[in-house]
Each structure stands twice: as structure tokens, then as C-alpha cells.
Amino acid sequence: MVLAFYNEGLVGLKPRAAFERHMSPGFIEHKPDVPEGTRTAAASFLEQLIANVPQPEWTILRTIAEGDLVFLHARFSPAAGAPEYAIADVFKLRGCKIIEHWDVVAPPPKDQRNPNPRF
């Protein structure tokens, strides 16, 4: 379910449809940039993000599930060749719907001193 949401909403660039299909009506968003923390506000936030960057691209790298929680490690690029952001998303599920979301977004490093990549 989380992969279906991510692939439709972010990879497929259709957040509104993905939120309506996969999020519960009482969905809670914890991202501090999303006013109100609701399903509607989160979908609007992503629509605006997609509209404001030249070629948004999300790539899922890893998925871990435990109980009612699903963790995704993803890469986000605002445009071809642009420095990439590392994203950690955590989703909570109930009754075949996503009911809650948290994320941590790390911007591109200014100085990559560690030889091991984030991805």
C-alpha cells in the first residue's frame, strides 16, 4: 500500500489522487512545513512542490516494514543533474489505509568527506 501510494503520488506526480486513494480521511501529517497537518493540506503541499521544481523525481531505495509501520529510504532530485536530497519516510497503517506520516529530509551535502554515499 505504501509503495502504491509513493509510486502514484510522488514517482507518478499525482499526489491528490494518491492521497484520496491511500490515506484515511483522518490522516495526520507531521511534516512541519504542512499547515494544519491534514490529508488535504499534505496533498496541496506536494502539488505545490511539484509545480515549483523543474523536473521532480523520487526514487525508492529501501523499504522496511514492521507491524503497522513502513519505512522508506528515498532519493529526491528537483531537476536532472541537480544535487539529490535523502528522504526517510515513516508511514503508519490501519485498515488498509495510511493514517499517519513522518519524514526527515536531508539536503545535498555541502562537503562529502565520507567516502560512503547516503544512497
Structural notes for this entry:
It contains 3 helices and 5 strands. The model has no long low-confidence stretch (mean pLDDT 96). The longest helix has 14 residues, at 39-52. The chain has one domain (2-106): Nuclear Transport Factor 2, Chain: A (Roll). With 119 residues, it is α+β, with helices and mostly antiparallel strands. Helix content is 27%, strand content 39%. Strands 1-5-4-3-2 form a 5-stranded mixed sheet.
Number of domains: 1
Helical residue percent? Answer: 25-40%
Question: What is the helix/strand order?
Answer: HHEHEEEE
Structural class: alpha+beta
Work out the strand percent: 35-45%
CATH architecture grouping = Roll
Major sheet: size, sense and barrel closure?
A: 5 strands, mixed
CATH class: Alpha Beta
Shape: globular
How much is the average pLDDT? 96
Radius of gyration: 14 Å
SSE topology sketch:
Elements: H1 2-11, H2 15-22, E1 23-29, H3 39-52, E2 57-66, E3 69-77, E4 85-94, E5 97-106
Parallel strand pairs: 1-5
Antiparallel strand pairs: 2-3, 3-4, 4-5
Helix pairs in contact: 1-2, 2-3
Give the tags.
119 residues, alpha+beta, Nuclear Transport Factor 2, Chain: A, 5-stranded mixed beta sheet
Summarize, please.
The chain has 3 helices and 5 strands; from the N terminus they run ααβαββββ. It is an alpha+beta fold and 119 residues long.
